[in-house]
Design goal:
It is built from ten helices and eight strands. It has helices spanning 4-17, 22-33, 47-52, 69-73, 91-98, 116-129, 152-163, 177-187, 206-224, 230-243; strands spanning 37-41, 61-66, 83-88, 104-108, 132-146, 191-196, 199-202, 249-260. α6 runs parallel beside α8 (177-187). The radius of gyration is 19 Å and the shape is globular. It starts with a helix and ends in an 8-residue tail after the last strand.
Length: 268
C-alpha cells in the first residue's frame, strides 16, 4: 500500500518528468479514433487523471481502478472529465476485465511492480479490443547521485534486486518492465514509442529525496539481512540524508511507453 502523503509528495515531480514528445502523439490518436473511455490501472488518488485530463480534448469518461479503497475515495475529477467512476478491485482480475470497456488504458508508476504473467495478459487483453495504451513512469533501474558516494552502487543493486525478489508466487519485473512491454506490444502489431522520463531532483526536492533514501534503505536492508553489509547500508543512508540538505542532484530513471493499436491510421 502507498501512503497518500507519499503520492502527494511525488506527484509534482511525476508530472514535470513525463516524456513530453509522447503527448502530441497520444492527442492525435485520441482525436482521430474518437476515443472517450479511459481506464487508469493502479490509479491511487488520481494523479494520472490530473495530468492527462486537462490535456485531452473532448468527452472523457474515466474509470480509476485501485485495490486501496481509501486512496480511491480521495480521487477528484477535473473540469474536462464528464464521467468519473471509481472501481475498487485488483489488477489481476478486475483490471483485466475492465479493459473490455476501454478505448485507452493507462497507468503510472505501476508496471515495474507487476509480474511478467500479468503483463502478458495485459497485452493480450488490450489487443483483443484494439485499445491504445499509455504507460508512464516505469522505473528503469537508474539511480545516480552527484556528488557520488562509494556505496551508491551497492545500494542501487540491492534496491533493484529487492524489487525483483521472489514474493512467494510471483516476481516483479522491476527495471526490465518497460522494455519487455514494448517488445510484447510490438509483437501484437502495435506501434510503440518508448522514451525516458527521469526524475531529476535537487535541493528543492529534498523532502522527496529523503523519503526515497528511507525507502531504499529499508529495501536494501531487507534484502541483505544481518550480513556484513547491514552497517554499510545504514551508514550510506545517514550520509545521503545529510547530503540532501546541501546542494545535490539525483536522477531516478523512468520510461514512458505509448502503444497505438494496429487499426490506428497515423495519416489522420
Amino acid at each position: 500500500r502507498f501512503a497518500p502523503d507519499w503520492l502527494a509528495l511525488r506527484e509534482p515531480v511525476d508530472h514535470r518528468s513525463r516524456a513530453q514528445t509522447l503527448l502530441p502523439l497520444l492527442q492525435t490518436a485520441w482525436s482521430a479514433n474518437g476515443w472517450t473511455r479511459i481506464l487508469d490501472l493502479g490509479s491511487g488518488t488520481g494523479s494520472n487523471l490530473r495530468y492527462l485530463g486537462p490535456r485531452l480534448i473532448g468527452i472523457q469518461e474515466w474509470t480509476l481502478l485501485d485495490h486501496d479503497a481509501d486512496l480511491l475515495a480521495q480521487a477528484k475529477g477535473v473540469e474536462q472529465v464528464r464521467c468519473l467512476k471509481r472501481l475498487h478491485g485488483n489488477l489481476e482480475d478486475d483490471g483485466l476485465e475492465a479493459i473490455r470497456e476501454a478505448d485507452l488504458v493507462t497507468c503510472a508508476a505501476v508496471l515495474d511492480l507487476v509480474p511478467e504473467t500479468w503483463l502478458r495478459q495485459l497485452v493480450q487483453s488490450c489487443r483483443a479490443v484494439l485499445c491504445g495504451v499509455f504507460i508512464a513512469l516505469t522505473y528503469d533501474g537508474v539511480i545516480r547521485w552527484s556528488p557520488d558516494d562509494p556505496d551508491d552502487e551497492l545500494v542501487r543493486e540491492a534496491v533493484n534486486a529487492h524489487q525483483r525478489r521472489d514474493q512467494g508466487a510471483v516476481c516483479a519485473l522491476g527495471p526490465a518492465a518497460s522494455m519487455l512491454a514494448e517488445t510484447l506490444f510490438k509483437s501484437e502489431g502495435y506501434r510503440t514509442r518508448l522514451l525516458p522520463s527521469p526524475w531529476r531532483l535537487d535541493v528543492r526536492d529534498g523532502e522527496l529525496a529523503r523519503a526515497l533514501v528511507d525507502g531504499w534503505e529499508h529495501a536494501a536492508l531487507e534484502l541483505v539481512g544481518q550480513s556484513d553489509l547491514f552497517g554499510r547500508i545504514s551508514a550510506w543512508a545517514d550520509r545521503r540524508r545529510r547530503a540532501t540538505l546541501r546542494d545535490f542532484t539525483l536522477t531516478v530513471g523512468h520510461q514512458d511507453l505509448l502503444a497505438l493499436p494496429p487499426n490506428f491510421d497515423s495519416t489522420h
